[in-house]
Amino acid sequence: MAKNNQPNADDKVILGPTGRPYRGFPTPPTLDRHGPARIIALCNQKGGVGKTTTSINLAASLAEYGRKVLAIDFDPQGALSAGLGVPTHDIPTIYDLMLDTKRDPKDAIVETHVEGLDIIPANIDLSAAEVHLVNEVAREMILARVLRKVVNDYDVVLIDCQPSLGLLTVNALTAAHGVLVPLECEFFALRGVALLIETIEKVQDRLNPSLELDGLLATMYDSRTLHSREVLDRIVETFDDKVFETVIGRTVKFPDSSVSGVPIIEYAPQHPAAQAYLRLARELVDRGAVA
Ligand SMILES: Nc1ncnc2c1ncn2[C@@H]1O[C@H](COP(=O)(O)OP(=O)(O)OP(=O)(O)O)[C@@H](O)[C@H]1O
Ligand SMILES: [Mg+2]
Fold first, then answer.
1. How far apart are CA 105 and CA 120, in angstroms?
2. Would you say residue 7 lies in a domain?
3. Ligand 1: which atom is nearest the Cα of residue 161?
4. What is the average pLDDT value for the chain, to the nearest integer?
5. Structural domain span for residue 166
6. Whole-structure pTM value
7. 53 lines ligand 1 (CB under 6 A)
8. Does residue 49 have its Cβ closer than 6 Å to ligand 1?
9. Which candidate among 60, 177, 255, 283 keeps its CA 20 to 30 Å from the CA of 274?
């Protein structure tokens, strides 16, 4: 292999699961200063597709490469907070910051045990947000106003959305520079994606013209099943190079590591799934989606 893992002409070309030549992506260069952050919303209204798992592990992987990362738990279930071992009760959360936008976001930022990774937690209180905020002026822009005060302190902000296309998700899309869509390699993966893309386009049109679709991430891929391979082929056929070359395999290590409250790159650093999230982090930097 030559530099950057690009095959030489006389090397046999190894194809990755998306059908493109396999690339490892170079180690991201060290940053000598931090911020302003690029904000990425992880979004899919379908439940259980790997949004939270990707938020946790991508955040930890980017932090591993020296990026300053802020993860926003934007789901009343609080799974991101729990997955990073952060308590969610009797502490300020993202909901408190949204209710009182004059409040200093630093009140709610919690350092995780992963160096370089901070989080703003959420809990069930956030489920009241849709009702509480509905009469607010510019109610779609509340999260953007909150995040404006912290972007200079981070290189990347990841927002873990809840599985819905309601007001909270619209707030996330309005605050974001980019959207990352995790898709489970299962039969119904593409159902609902058209509606998601339509929502993204509406937000681009009315609220946030610079919003970009950063890419679709295939998750829970099982290379041993024809079914998984067929679904991935369909995803690539439909979205072409918007599909990340990195694909996340299916493994029980994810539920195991979430229960322990640590990212997989700490729980099982040598596991292929840990390596896959590190590679996704490198791919995002390579694509220019993260500094
Ligand atoms: N690659 C994977 N292999 C196996 N299990 C996985 C993988 N990724 C996630 N899981 C598991 O699948 C379940 C759903 O994942 P996750 O919570 O990340 O999805 P989500 O999209 O955030 O769900 P929700 O829509 O409910 O917020 C979890 O139990 C998680 O541990
Ligand atoms: Mg989730």
1. 8
2. no
3. 27
4. 94
5. 37-287
6. 0.96
7. yes
8. yes
9. 177
